[in-house]
Design brief:
alpha/beta; Arc Repressor Mutant, subunit A; D-Maltodextrin-Binding Protein, domain 2; 5-stranded mixed sheet; 11 helices; 17 strands
C-alpha cells in the first residue's frame, strides 16, 4: 500500500502532510523521497523486524532515543500510525504491517543495487563475527584455507559455543542454529538440511550381534547425544520409504559433541546417529560403516541467524561460503 502523502507528492509536486488525526496540510515539496524520509524508513524497517526500539538501536548502532525520535518523525511525515507501543513490546498496526512489507522490499532492492555496483570492484574487508558449535566448525575446516586466500582482507572471528547467541543483542554478525529457530524477529537464512544416519566401526560390528531391524538396537551400546545441556537423545526416530520407526536406545556413553561421538564410533565404542556429511571420509576409508542403510533420521535444517537482512558484503560472502560447504 502506497501512503497518500507519497502518492500525492509524486503526481503533483505538492505534499499533503497529515497530522495524526488524518488532517491534510498541503505544502510544496520535492517530487522524490527526501533523505530524511529514507533514513526514517530504514529505522522503521529495523524496529518492525526486531520488534523493539532497543534491538533496532543496537543493530543500527544508534541511541534508543534517536530511534524513537526518527520513528515519531517518520509517522508524522507520512501521516500514518505505524507502530503500537506498550511498556513490554512493539507491534505493527494494520497499516504498519502493509507498509512494512513494501518498505522491506525497497530496502532490499537498494542494498542489492549497491552490492551489484560495488561488488565487482571493491574487495570485501573487515571482520565477520560468527557463533557456532565446534562440531559445526568441523564442516568448514576443508574450505576455510581457500576462503582466506580468496578474501585476504577479511577476518573471520569464530566463537565456538553450545549456547544460543542472539546477533541482535550480542557482538555477533552470524549465529548458526541447528533445527528450526523460534520466531525471534531475527532474519533466518536456511543454509542446508543435514541427514543423520546410523554408523559403527567394522570392529564393533564384528564382535557384536548383527543389526537387522530397529529393535536390535536395544541390545547394543549406542552412543547418545546430550541436547540443550540437559536432555539426552535416547529415543531415536528414523524413517524408511515413508515408514516411521522409533527405538529407545541405551549405552554407557553420553556426550554433547558430535565430533567426539564420531571419534568414539570410529574407535569401536558403539553405534552412533551422526550427520552423513561429517562421516564421508571415515566411510570412504572403511573406518565407519552405515548400519540399517534403509533407515535415516528426518532431515535437520541448518540456519544462519542475522540481526537484519540488510547486511554488508563481507557477511553475504561468508554466508555464500557456508552454503557451498554444506
Amino acid at each position: 500500500m502506497m501512503c497518500r502523502w507519497m502518492r500525492f507528492s509524486m503526481t503533483t509536486g505538492l505534499s499533503g502532510r497529515f497530522d495524526m488525526a488524518g488532517l491534510a496540510r498541503p505544502r510544496i515539496t520535492r517530487s522524490y523521497m527526501s533523505p530524511e524520509m529514507l533514513r526514517g524508513m530504514v529505522v522503521f524497517v529495523e524496529v518492525a523486524r526486531l520488534k523493539g526500539f532497543s534491538r533496532a538501536g543496537l543493530a543500527l548502532e544508534m541511541p534508543v532515543s534517536t530511534v524513537s525520535r526518527r520513528i515519531a518523525e517518520f509517522e508524522r511525515d507520512i501521516g500514518l500510525r505505524l507502530l503500537k507501543r506498550t511498556t513490554k513490546k512493539v507491534e505493527l498496526t494494520e497499516e504498519g504491517e502493509a507498509y512494512f512489507l513494501r518498505c522491506q522490499r525497497i530496502m532490499e532492492d537498494i542494498d542489492n543495487a549497491h552490492e551489484e555496483v560495488l561488488g565487482t570492484r571493491v574487495q570485501p574487508r573487515g571482520q565477520v563475527r560468527v557463533a557456532m558449535t565446534a562440531d559445526f566448525g568441523l564442516r568448514l575446516v576443508a574450505g576455510l584455507p581457500d576462503f582466506c586466500r580468496r578474501y585476504p582482507e577479511l577476518v573471520v572471528d569464530f566463537e565456538l559455543t553450545t549456547r544460543v547467541v542472539d546477533p541482535a543483542t550480542e557482538n555477533c554478525d552470524v549465529a548458526i542454529y541447528i533445527g528450526t529457530p523460534p520466531d525471534s524477529g531475527l532474519t533466518a537464512i536456511k543454509l542446508a538440511e543435514g541427514q543423520m544416519h546410523l554408523y559403527a566401526s567394522p570392529d564393533y560390528l564384528r564382535t557384536h550381534p548383527p543389526v537387522r531391524k530397529l529393535a536390535d538396537l536395544k541390545t547394543h551400546a549406542c552412543i547418545r547425544e546430550r541436547l540443550n545441556g540437559t536432555e539426552i537423545r535416547s529415543l531415536w526416530t528414523l524413517y524408511k520409504a515413508g515408514e516411521k520407526g522409533e527405538v529407545r536406545v541405551s549405552g554407557p556413553l553420553v556426550l554433547n559433541g558430535i565430533g567426539l561421538i564420531r571419534r568414539l564410533a570410529v574407535g569401536g565404542a558403539g553405534i552412533a546417529l551422526l550427520p552423513g556429511d561429517l562421516c564421508r571420509e571415515e566411510v570412504a576409508s572403511g573406518k565407519l560403516v552405515r548400519v540399517l542403510k534403509a533407515w535415516a533420521a528426518a532431515p535437520l535444517p541448518i540456519f544462519a541467524l542475522t540481526a537484519t537482512r540488510m547486511m554488508p558484503a563481507r557477511t553475504r560472502i561468508f554466508l555464500e561460503f557456508l552454503k557451498s560447504q554444506l
